[in-house]
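Work through this:
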Amino acid sequence: MLPSSTVENYLKAIYSAQRAIEVEALVPMGQLAAALNVVPGTATTMVKTLAESGLVRYEPYAGVRLTPAGDRLAALVLRRHRLVELFLVQVMGMSWTEVHDEAELLEHAVSDRLIERMDEMLGRPAVDPHGDPIPNAEGGVHERVYHSLLECPVGRPLRVARVADQDVDFLRFLEQSRLMPGQPVAVVARDPAADSVEVQGPGQQRITLGARAASKVLVDVQADS
């Protein structure tokens, strides 16, 4: 079966869901259907087709998980998506807040040859504009483990490394607050009662984030100067 855009979207959704659950655990069908905005019956029918093609392992009433072949194909879809995003930002001058939807369309259309040329032109980047890792041409990906602003050390120098949300309004808020990947930041205080985190960004500015927002900003702990 040649991978259609629908097949690629299913594989990508399963791939992303697997990263948020325990190793070897199955992705529930209801969760997959919700992620793809389809009814569970539609998701089940498609997953059965993917299972027949050897791309997923499906267990009725339990869930689904990618096979090695499905995992590699899903990683290559993400490779195209993330390289396109970076190309649109760095070469085309688009905002990081608007490239996700464009990349969703282009990831199914660009050829492997064009993607390889983009990768070379961009200098073989490791991450996209949001800090997400870019898989290599073989589908391998180096996933670094980061702390969120909810759990990182207080008072230590940090660097924003990754943003775990592609919502346009959220990205605009982070851009206005100068909390984009690469920017220095430090957690000043946490208030469990108010469910908030106070951070100090570039230029010594202080910003208060709700717990939900803070959980989506992933940081790398820097060495003390």
